[in-house]
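Retro notes, item 3 of 5
We never archived the inputs for the magnesium ion complex last cycle. Fixing that now. Sequence and ligand:
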Amino acid sequence: MKSKTSMLEVLRRVIQEVNGARNLDAALSTMVRRIRKAMQTDVCSFYLYDKTLESLVLMETIGLRTQAVGHVVLPLGEGLVGLVAKRSEPLNLEDARSHPHFRYFEATGEERYSSFLGVPIIHQRQMLGVLVVQQAEKRSYDDEDEAFLVTMAAQLAGVLAHALATGNLTRPALPGGQAMFKGVAASPGVAMGEAVVITPPADLNSVPDLVPSNEAYEIARLKEAIAKTRDEIRAAAERLASRISSQELALFDVYQQMLGEAALSEEVEKRIREGQWAPGALADVVRRHVQYLERVDDDYLSERAADIRDLGRRVLSHLQEDAPSTPETYPDNAILVGDEISVAMLGEVPRDKLKGLVSVHGSSTSHVAIVARAMGIPTVLGMMDLPLPRLNGAPVVLDGHRGRLFVRPTADLTLRYENLIAEEKVLSELLEHEQDLPSTTQDGHEMPLMVNTGLAVDATTLLKSRIAGVGLYRTEVPFMITERFPGEKEQMRMYREQLEGFAPLPVVMRTLDIGGDKDLPYFPIEEANPFLGWRGMRVTLDHPEVLMVQLRAMLKASHGLNNLYVLFPMITNVEEVDEALKLLDRAIIELGEEGITIKRPKVGVMIEVPATIYQMDALAKRVDFFSVGSNDLTQYLLAVDRNNPRVSSLYDALHPALLGALQELSLDARRLNKPISLCGELAGDPAGALLLMAMGFTALSMNAPSLPKVRAAIRRVTLHDAKALLAEIMCMDTPTQVHEHLNKRMDEWQLSHLLPPRD
Ligand code: PEP
Ligand code: MG
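Structure as it came back at the time:
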């Protein structure tokens, strides 16, 4: 094996090539060559696992006969390669032929090779294929060889998974057409429609493919964009002429030459004539050049790759000036797809046309997810493997319950989802009839239901007769929409609207809960571990000037209404509560001095940091009510980032540990004679809501669209049965057992239609 630096260099290079390649076949071919060279061995091959065939197919090789590619197929567990895949472990053999699993394929010419080292390629527990090196003479591959190949395979895994998902690499048996992508379910529901890709400005990798309606126009605007870029570069060179060395200045000449060369614009024009719009054609050509230059072993040329990419971006940004990144007209069933979707983008699509949302980044608690849930728009975020450029205009089915997107769905799948949508519609019409009826069980227990708000779209008047109040008004949401901290008057207006709109019902207003993933554009917080960092009360206690303005605005807004409840988020220590209460009292005194007499509102704390579970007695001495934030309590108790799609399967509010904590909390609150509500997503899950009711929670607060199903579930059971179910569930050891048992009971009670569809 070569030195450590060269190993790193080879790794870096291979990953870069495979990543950047539009044509993965070419990249794989370079990859096996590079590995063979680095390990100074005779053969390097890549076998891809085909799920449908349950076999490994030779996809690329250097050393074996190329005719064997695509023809050598090893069922899982068969041959040495099949054994590596089945065991998901490396296999290192000096004398491969004497191994009982050795199988000889005439087509490969493999008989010549004695030694064998194979390692599996595994991505998120899924085996994707096997990397193999072989040697003619007997060789015992050493630890370092093995470590190199294992590292290479681990690095390749993500790239391969992405390539498979995007269709850049097709599994041999996979029919073209339908593709499925997974993400984090962020807002429930199912939608079918046409993908509308929103392009972030000047990103060569996410320009969608579009067929131009007018070639001449595309060519003209390309020329104009190139001319503008040349002017820009000339101006920049002039500005910098006195400040940089002549050598550096020469770079601008190189740029001018590149842009001036007929070659670039001619090539792009050719692509336009072949049926690409100008931005797509430019992106294609630039990518091709960059890839070529990066592959060459020459520092000077690799540098030029960066130049070309930079120039490409500049030209693209001019092209995008006149072609807005959001379309002017939307199809009737638009499923908005983007790298990152902002709330502002949402606002641009007419509500009746917006059927679903998908993005590569984001999480179930990101701002856009909160808005989407409040608006009832099915949403899946964190779809890391999405091939953005090739999605525009494609027919898609979005499953917001399971977090899936189907692109170009088959007729079968379309029918299945059409039926599901029809069932959901019938169900919601059916449930609508009982929305004004009380949320009372069949044995007369009343379970107050409240809503989570924070948005203008919340339909106050319609909701008012159906709820017991607002259980959580997230004040950070209006803060996110402004361009600076809103002033006292501005805040007062917003809060008054809420308080008045829902009066005389109680409105629980939470003080600013920023940090974590909820940044304000004008108050960015950069931290390595934002969820464990400066968040919620920690920020506002450090900035009493911000908290004071907010508290004063809330208090003033409540004048004469007396339905304000104040809630402090992210409490870790009792001292934080003392400090916050001091500020609240100061605000009341100040207002009194200004002639506005306000009674101290009821105050509560959020129970979302596990420490507070053990401080209920101390907290109860200071506050009037508790509100459990199960979203955060889940992430902190299970140590699972609520936004990380990689670990989202571990994030489970019905984990036995959580259920234990919730039961304790509710018993403690009762002992301490304090109301306790829950305002996380768990409250909006009909099965979860029944368990919380059985535990003794005094109110459940949820997004408005969850109300009908939760109410229906409560109205169809007795408290007695719910308590029996809880007792059974509390004996379960694992999250899977909890879910299975809940599903079983829901089936028996004929409530399964209220739960999200299962696989
Ligand atoms: C929670 O953590 O459960 C909660 C309701 O607050 P947020 O989702 O805004 O953090
Ligand atoms: Mg929270």
